[in-house]
Amino acid sequence: MLVKDKSVLEMRNIYKSFPGVLALQAVDFTLHEGEIHALMGENGAGKSTLIKVLTGVYEKDQGEIFLGKMEKAAVIRSPQDAQNLGISTVYQEITLCPNLSVAENMYIGRGKGLCQNWKKMNEDAEKILKTLDISAGATQQLSSCSLAIQQMVAIARAVDMDCKVLILDEPTSSLDEQEVEKLFGLMRDLKARGVGIVFVTHFLEQVYAVCDKITVLRDGKLVGEHQIKDLPRVQLVAKMLGKELDDVADIKDEVQVYEQDDSIPPVFEAEALQSNVGIKPFDFHIRKGEVNGLTGLLGSGRSECVRAIFGADRVIGGSVKKSGKVIKISKPIDAMKNGIAYLPEDRKSDGIVGDLSVRENIILAAQVLKGFFKPFSKAEANKLADEYIKLLEIKTASADTPIKSLSGGNQQKVILARWLLTHPEYLILDEPTRGIDVGTKIEIQKLVIKLASEGMSVTFISSEIDEMLRTCSRLIVMRDRKMVGELSGTGLSQSKIMDTIAGGDKK
Amino acid sequence: MTQNKKNIFAKLSGRQIFIPIAALLLLAVFNLILDPSFYKIALSANSAGDPVLSGYLITILDYGSELAILAIGMTLVTAASGGQDISVGAAIAIGGSVILRVLCGTDSRPEVLKAPIIAAFLVSCVVCMLFGAFNGVLVAGFKIQPMVATLILFTAGRSIAAWINNNELPVISDQSFGYFGGFIPGIPIPTPFFIAVICMIVMALALKFTNLGLYTQAVGINAGSSRLNGLNPAFIKFLAFVILGLCVAVASLIKVSRISSINYSVIAKDIEMDAILAVALGGNSLSGGKFNMAASILGAYVIQFLTTTLYKFNVKSDALSAYKAIVVIALVVLSAPVVREKFSSFGKKMKLRTKEVG
User: Fold this and answer.
1) A375 touches B: beta carbon within 8 Å
2) Three-point CA angle A14, A15, A17, nearest 5°
3) Is the predicted pLDDT of residue B243 greater than 90, yes or no?
4) What span, in angstroms and rounded, lies between the C-alpha atoms of B335 and B281?
5) Which among A3, A155, A374, B87 is least buried, having the fewest CB atoms inside 10 angstroms?
6) Where are the beta strands (DSSP E) in A182-314?
7) Is the pTM of this model over 0.80?
8) Which residues of chain B does A400 touch, with a Cβ-Cβ cutoff of 8 Å?
9) How many C-beta atoms lie closer than 10 Å to residue A44's C-beta?
10) Are A54 and A60 in contact (CB under 8 A)?
11) Residue B210 forms contact with A (CB below 8 Å)
């Protein structure tokens, strides 16, 4: 048995501020040997900041960090320092080099000298991949792997670095259930070897499945540290939000009010639509004021379907109809002109324009629709941006702040604001709540239902079935890049969906 | 009062335009200390008997203007494509050659111009924009790195320019053609400055009354996201190269007007490097994205200030580049974000210390 009370990491009284925001105030955090410790909090609670302070990405303003048996406070000025002290990190967004091979990604920046034994490196990498059961070749180019595999490679890289403290910042957000299980197995294995693991996630089930302890942050302050068995789920959520969870109950009632009506003709229809990214031709329709959803495992083709409708991928067959009339959509602007808006899955690479301000990010799509020669005046742009910052409660120092310095949830709200500003008839939301805190998730779900009740059609894609059940009145199930089933009314239940995903048929 | 001054300084130092201003001040003070006569401006009559201003500052205003015009286009290309056009000098040779060809026709020493100057200029505009479009297609359509794509024209441009005039060196005797690179009778300020001001105004209007700025920056920062917002990133990049082509045509008019003739291998030599440096000195990221047009333009004049200063101290023209490089390294290193961060944190520390002492 391991001695459980030996701490490998102690952070004391950490302060960190950014222009206009106090991100961390007097935060303490303790991690013991062989412990999986969940770090929980809403977006902007300070989790990411705390981790970046620990890994040397940010320099703390105040406070001390002790590692293991060290008497003196550790000096962590750069990620390199952190790595040398045995702190490894896997970030939420994959931070590897897509144009290098898997093995190169695992060993990059770790060689002592300039020389590299390529053969040995590839063999070593192959071995590790095998033990971790990751289905990628060592010499394969990383960008040719799926997002999930890329994430696993990032973890493999961190694990191999012989770390004492492993930080997993939202590692599961792009993994499917099996892969998550695999990762958990790996985590338990490392735990048995005495590694302290900090686990940041928004999935409550995962916390309860694998963690020993929970530390909750809110608004940059420490709320408390708890043993997992002492803190039931409802209380955890309440602590994270700083309020009781009436909101969740509310939303369910509203859903009951909204029922699907088959007599209304569809606004948008797709017939045998097919794009060049390898999905089977599909039929699809949505009615006015309807919220439907696309569900299925990761890689089942959910995003590819909506991207085909929006013209984001090259369409190679089939047609799209609006109110019965065929419309031609060959690029995104065509779809936008027909009242379709698309919030993409990958916020960082497809959503935000990082260096531009929150204001410019909000007005971008509406501006493009308005035309090259008709820019919004400064006053108009300010007014619109302020209006939507207020409406969606976007937390930002000002409308001039570059969007990249906002937290993930707030970035997502900005992108949402951008599309709402175009007043679309049909809004496609592809994983709008990925990597977002519980509070914002509920806000977004409520917003979707409100928009639908005002007559907007919405397609909602999410990996969380809970969330789909709460918002959608009709679910289309996808498997292996094909639509395999449709559920609505009484058919909408978790078990039914699971069945269909797993292999139940349409009939 | 001093408090107020400090605030202004603090505000300014955080802004992008601070970099070229600081460089300008540094050069200005350097000249002031070593030889105040640098700032002497005289009013005298030129060879045509018209009163004109002369002096080092006027030279800077004169030659800095053609650089400023190029910096405008180069800023857009840099922002949109994340790379630079190194064929600018060669393209000027082509533009100039076209102007002379149209003006001279088949006669290399015409008594009277064969076409109005405006027509020659417009033809040159079209040709230069076509060559810009050629670069644009390579970069935006075939996704070749800008420096590599423009290397083609960089290599071939001067030969093309010579070929346009059958390798002859036409000379224009018409007085009025010299106005564009010299002085308009009665106006003592060099004409290139007015041409540059017109270009600046046109660009300022374009940035204000169209979405050129927003689209260019969005595409430069995140082309994928821009596409999903309905933009056509390839077209925006293409457009930037065509606009640079137009700037090249204007600069080529000034260049050939200066000597009323052309020297294919020397005209606008190395000017692309100065134009790129102007963009960098303006604090714009050479890997694209956000840009500040005013800072680039100021950067162009600062580069010319530097060149003129070096000439003043009798640096030989073939040694010029080496000296320039040293100064440029210093300027660029000082303006690098890393160094600036160090400075600002150092400044903060000093402030804290003085507070503690006080």
Assistant:
1) yes
2) 150
3) yes
4) 8
5) A3
6) 196-200, 213-218, 221-227, 266-275, 282-287, 291-296
7) no
8) none
9) 23
10) no
11) yes
